[in-house]
Amino acid sequence: MRILTLALLTSIAMPITAAAQTTEDPYLWLEDLSSPRAMEWVNARNAYSTKILEADPRYATLYQEALTIAAAKDRIPAPSFTHGEIYNFWQDAEHLRGIWRKTTLADYKTADPKWTTVLDIDALGKAEGKSWVLKGTQCLRPEERLCLISLSDGGEDAVEVREFDLSTGQFVAGGFHLPRGKHRIAWEDKDHLLVATDWNPGELTQSGYPYIVKRLARGQAMSAAVEVYRGDQKDGGYGVSPGVLRDAKGRTLAYVDRPLDTFHSQTFIITPAGAQRLAIPEKASLEELIDGRVIVRLNEAWTAGGTTFTPGSVAEMDLAQVKAAPGAPKAKLVWAPGPRNSLGGISSTRDKLLISTLSNVQGRAFVYTPKAGGGWTSTRLKLPDNLTVGFGASDEGSNLAFVGTSGFLTPSTLYLANTDTGALEQVKAIAPKFDASQDVVEQLEATSTDGTKIPYFVVHRKDIPYNGSTPTLLGAYGGFQVSQTPNYSGTIGKLWLERGGAYALANIRGGGEFGPAWHEAGLGTKRQIVYDDFAAVAKDLMARKITSPKKLGIQGGSNGGLLMGVEFTQHPELWGAVVIQVPLLDMIRISKIAAGASWQGEYGDVNADPKVMAFWQKLSPYHNLKPGVAYPEPFIFTTTKDDRVGPQHARKFAARMEEMGLHFYYYENTEGGHGAGADLKQSARTTALTMTYLQRKLMNEPAQ
Asked: What long-range pairs does 213-216 form, CB within 8 A, spacing at least 24?
């Protein structure tokens, strides 16, 4: 039932040499991504873990249920308004990598739309001998005929970009083409792109992202592109990004966003005289252009033209004034948050501004209409309460927009909103994927170590016994100002809730549920409070006798994987199961692995600040595993193709556990990028392995 210990693995694992053991980090060799030695280590642990988990009598059923849900024909096909029609990217059992397809709006609204395939990714990959994964499309407004198609080999973040013509359904012969790279691209016009990439070998930041933007003309060799902006090789974040805002009257604003770290950036307007700095805060971003008004999202306070805006607000600037005097912009308020409100998303139709918000983690959606002479009128769309609400695709050629709702027990529903009238038409709703008739959702609060109330949701059977016996899965993220909100998950419902489990979601600090301050409370060396919040929610679930340590499992990925790693090392006594997915775990070498240097704005820089180094030496999960501690047996999942976080963290953490004779399950998918898999079958396998592990740990043992 357990993965092999170090002693049992001597016949299949490369031995650790005496020389390696004397180095500061004896597992640096596992950072060599695809070396034969590292892959032999990976394959041995994969084989052992999958042999055990896939032999479990529950696995086959869980896999089939996960695949059926993932490939269901009655899923809502996510729409986009493109080239006068509705486009959708679709994956199912016959199209594992997916097809890009189209239909009319009228047909989309029917129960059985008639789709036309535009691009078949499975067929393209087969024809070219590549493991292509579609990473995105970008079509030139307003016609939206010419599109840039981003293709990833195996799911990694790096992509190859090709130009595609929707009128012919073909890649453009001699059209724009960028070889593999972490590109940032914007259409300037039909014959010009603004491109940030590694123009020459080594022209990347420490995080592996571009810092030079050039204008590439149609038919021009990349070597002849003209530079329009240059950042610095020491810049942090995700690399410089060009962008072009357009409104319905053809006005444009070309700009470059230069990240200094994860959250601070500078914005430069591209003018005939060169790039000029736009004097907005470093924690602000340009979002939309509506009726000649530049919409700005503010994540810090800002005083402009005598007006002070609070963090989390939305402001507007006049386009002509921005172009004339970018060094001294004036601004007016559009929306400001209340004490328990936060900004969700911002989008637009032809001449409407769309804003979604959270009110105590409950979704709201508003339409803002510009008034002649200045100001706005606003209308709240009449959508159901107690759900997550968000705008989907919007039509910049009309005032139509899709808006979706979802809840833990409420299947996702899609509405078509006429933003002129506020009328809502339900156009799609998925059929229930599990029996929720016996379940209930509660929003509760825990008290953290500093007295702050931490809200969380818990979904459970109405008749659970309050004796600590309910198997419970607790999730959270706690970083990067990402909000965790109610969401309908067929897999959690079918594979967990239907089998008697409870599911909890914690709104801990580090997220964006209550605006920028909620996020900033857990930045850098203040991050322990994030982990305290999560432990407080766990203890609250136990105090209410919903669950108990032997029956409580936790799960998180990426930054959430770091959360799991810290909780694993700090509170091993609280958990019966721990799922650590595509994680960050070595917080001392984070800047040396994949894109880790780009997140120093979130975690601090251990290389430059002794206080940050001291903090992470005490918290870094890889460095805080201790022999002789009764840790729960975790399930560690990563992917070889993850070029964002990198599999190195998971590998080294598992190797250190193994060195200490600690037991674990380990699975590294060889494809999939920073996710569960490159296709539906891979994702279903990951889900089934995870759920098999959780059920073995939490549904087989008595309560403590």
From this structure: 213/184, 213/240, 213/242, 213/256, 215/188, 216/176, 216/192
CA dihedral 510, 380, 427, 164 (to 10 degrees): -60
Angle between helices 559-570 and 648-659 (to 10 degrees): 20
Q: Look at strands 159-165 and 353-359 and give their pairing.
A: unpaired
The pair of three-digit structure tokens given for residue 197, joined into one six-digit string = 């990439």
pLDDT of 292 > 90? The answer is yes
CA angle in degrees (0–180, nearest 5) for 556-558-559 = 85
Query: What is the pTM for the complete model shown?
Result: 0.86
State residue 341 phi and psi, 5-degree precision. -110, 155
Q: CA–CA separation, 67 vs 685, rounded Å?
A: 8
Of residues 348, 469, 674, 683, which has the active-site annotation?
Answer: 674
> In sequence order, which residues have a C-beta less than 8 Å from that of residue 383 and are 6 or more positions away?
363, 364, 365, 389, 403, 405, 415, 424
Residue 44 tokens read as 């041995």
User: What are the percentages of helix, strand and coil residues in the chain, rounded to 5?
Assistant: 25, 35, 40
Please tell me whether residue 152 adopts helix, strand or coil conformation.
strand
Phi first, then psi: what are they for 412, rounded to 5°? -55, 135
Kindly state the tokens that stand for 598: 């780009």
Catalytic member of 152, 313, 469, 558: 558
Six token digits for residue 682: 């891979």
Q: Are 3 and 634 in contact (CB under 8 A)?
A: no
Q: How far is CA 228 from CA 86, 254, 273, 393, in A?
A: 35, 11, 10, 31
Give the position of tokens 């549904």: 699
In tens, the pLDDT along 689-702 reads: 999 999 999 998 54
535-563: per-residue pLDDT in tens? 999 999 999 999 999 999 999 999 999 99
Respond yes or no: is residue 571 known to be catalytic: no
Known active-site residue 285: no
CA–CA distance, 647 with 156 (Å, rounded to integer): 12
Centroid of chain to Cα 72: 23
